[in-house]
Amino acid sequence: MQLCFFPGCNTPAIRPDVERAIRASMPVLGIELVDADNYVCCPAFGSFPSADEEAWMATSGWNLSIAEEKGCDFVVQCGSCYSSLCMGREHLLHDAEKLTRVNELLEPAGRQVTGKSRVRHVSEVLFKEIGPEKIAAHRKKSLKGLHGVVQYPCHTLFPSEVVGFEESPRAPQGLRRLVEALGAAVDGYSRELQCCGGAGGFMKSTPEQAVAFAKAKFDAILAETKADFIAVSCITCLMHMERVQNTLNEQIGEERYRIPVFDYNQLLALCLGFDPKQVSAICSVPRDSVISRMTDVNPNT
Amino acid sequence: MDLQEVSVKDLWQDVYSAGNLHYCFNCSTCISGCPASHGDPPLLVRNLARKLILGLEEELLDDDTPWACVSCSRCEEMCPMNVMPFEMILFIRQWQCRNDETRVPTAIVEIYKRGYTQAVGVNTELRESLGLPRLNTITNNPEQLELFRAMLMKTRIVSENDYMFGG
Ligand code: SF4
Ligand code: SF4
Fold first, then answer.
1. Residue A147 CA to ligand 2 centre (angstroms)
2. What ipTM was assigned to the predicted interfaces of this complex?
């Protein structure tokens, strides 16, 4: 199966090791990635969607036209990119006037949008298209003996009619099953579905409150689980959940918050046997405690 | 809220006429799950809906809280009346931008200039060390970037504020 890879901006610019992990794992699992040449900002919710509807739709249309030209669906890792592209497509599909106007705007660039290419989140492709069984079967390394917690990206849950792929958005299963497929035990906890709080203006406008909001989540993880790691599936969750732990440690003057955070694709690539120096190179909360405890999977057992 | 200030003008038509705004019955579901409701001042989605319905134009224009939204769409999912509060927030921001150019996010200037809010594709050494290919970004493709800019220049926000975009 072929999918057009939409890299977003934070991943290729700040966390390219996550991009490397996706580009490494997908072909092993039977997905061929084609590049989204000349893609632009998703657009981020704080940009055109907050300024002007027409420019928002035009920018969405520009991106969607790329996947349509390649004749396949988009695959996206970043939660915001995924949600923004889904929403743009939704607006264009359900409003003929908007679609006509966007195509007028795209025409001089030789582009066209119909909505025929879908937008798919990488965790949905892994969970629904590839499946935990196939992932488990391809492992060279295992997370056996380790405990993890999962952070579902809000942007893949809500609004479920537009972005959802879980049977119940209030009780999502995908990420849990995917982490379990790598051999780890996944611990549930009371604040599992709480947003990380890292996107948009919350952190910018009131950082103190945003950090306190995240602290409640981390305190719940520490009190209620045996988590050796946190598996996320969104670049904002990844960067924010590391940053907040470091901020909290500075505030209290001790290293209480130091749970390694991985994008799921990184855990997957590590278990498929790829080099940690390539697929897990960048972090601000050390990950050795997890990587050093991964065990070989014996193909004969 | 001073009800004497309530204007007869239908502010909501100007801002957000698409959703079921008038079905809002103040239940506050949109607040109870909202991360930014923990901010100071808190983002109180229900109150924004009220301001719109009551036509409190000046209050709404000065309100910074819509910009604290993290776009998680919990309110969109949970609102029992399908008001689509997250979209409402985006349309309030757009309306604020239309009426106060200092609200226009600088991110759109960055996107106009290089296609992205981040400098994508310039970290070639790091990317190479990770075994990654060169990205075919629009920043590195002047012809496509020009077409992209020309498209944006035809939209109202860019053409009316063209001084922000370097002419
Ligand atoms: S959840 Fe919906 S109906 Fe309830 S207060 Fe918010 S916008 Fe109004
Ligand atoms: S989308 Fe925005 S307003 Fe709605 S719950 Fe999330 S942060 Fe709050």
1. 31
2. 0.94
